[in-house]
Amino acid sequence: MKPTALLPAALLLSLLAACAAPSDDRLTLPDPTPPHTPAAALTGTSWTPRRTPTAAATRPSPTSTPQPMPGPPDLSIGSSWSRPVDDMVMLYVPGGEFQMGTDDDQMRISLKVCGVTASRMFGPGSRCLSSEFADETPAHPVELDGFWIDRTEVTNAQYRECVSAGACRPPVESGSYSRESYYGDAAFDNYPVVWVGWQQAVDYCAWVGARLPTEAEWEYAARGPEGFLYPWGDAFDGTRLNYCDANCDLGPNDPSIDDGYPDTAPVGSYPSGASWCGALDLARNVREWVADWFGPYYGRQANPHGPRSGDMIVSRGGSWLDPPENVRSTKRGRNTTDFAIYKLGIRCAR
After folding, report:
1. How many domains does the chain have?
2. Helices then strands, each counted (H, E), the chain
3. pTM of the predicted protein model
């Protein structure tokens, strides 16, 4: 048997030093969490929102750092949990595929609904043009991973906590359209915050450990796999939402409905207007900022985030000021990032 060769002295000393060093049994692995992993998989982590647009094309990070928070309980349709930072109830939207945008059949319905408003404004026989709905076409299939979304819009009371914490700037105005005192008035604590720009919406959602929904996520939460025009179906029903009814004096109103609110209403006031996942107020009360730059629709997409840059940010959902054709789940708004008004607010996702 041949004797084992002696190791060189330098190599032997190196091996002995390595054996004497403190051991670390932890393995360094690549992060397995994809950008769309549901929140339950992020338990105990500090979670950063997906990329969201800013006024600059470089998309700098939000000014507020998301807070660490425990994950929701489970992942099934109807699951809900209360977000620790602001006590907002979030609802789980299971992944799936839906038809985003307005197809030919829904275009005909939309034109008919719009024609009622046109006749009210301009006289009998007045009609709407299909070109007015061009931003919503072509209808195209979109596949989404599961996500969580706020059950209602962010309230004045919730937003005020963010301001008190130094993570948010106060709304541009403290009143609403018809009320001189609104934000900061305890009587309206449970009403949606308004007069907030896009960056304020980003900051709030980051503060609570969430983000703004993408445009596709918002529409899917409102329409579901069936692709309804309204959260409850394809037929407009003025009793299910807060829109421009008999109390609305700014535009073509619907005198046949009177809900008693001259502009915004308390969040969650219309449970019969809930969408398939249980989200409320998606067709009414205030429009809501989303994460995407505005851009044209294309073909089939998976987890779309909109264009990488642009001049206008998308807003979604109807408001207390809108006629029936503008509260459809396919309706798209667009505004500059610094735009703020009495009919635009916040809903977060995760």
Report:
1. 1
2. 5, 10
3. 0.80
Provide the domain limits for residue 217: 71-345
Q: Does residue 19 lie within any of the structural domains?
A: no
d(CA 126, CA 113): 12
Q: Position 312: which residue type?
A: M
Q: pLDDT truncated to tens, each residue of the chain (350 aa)?
A: 434 444 444 433 443 343 333 333 332 222 322 333 333 332 222 233 333 343 333 333 334 444 555 666 678 787 899 999 999 999 999 999 999 999 999 999 999 999 988 888 888 888 899 898 999 999 999 999 999 999 999 999 999 999 999 999 999 999 999 999 999 999 999 999 999 999 999 999 999 999 999 999 999 999 999 999 999 999 999 999 999 999 988 878 888 999 999 999 999 999 999 999 999 999 989 999 999 999 999 899 999 999 999 999 999 999 999 999 999 999 999 999 999 999 999 999 99
User: What CATH code is carried by the domain that includes residue 241?
Assistant: 3.90.1580.10
d(CA 349, CA 214): 9
- φ and ψ at residue 237, rounded to 5 degrees: -140, 105
Q: Would 23 be classed as within a structural domain?
A: no
Report d(CA 136, CA 331) in Å as an integer. 7
**Domain for residue 143, yes or no?**
yes
Residue among 290, 286, 272, 270 at smallest CA distance from 321 = 286
Q: Is residue 11 part of a domain?
A: no
Structure token pair of residue 196? 């907030």
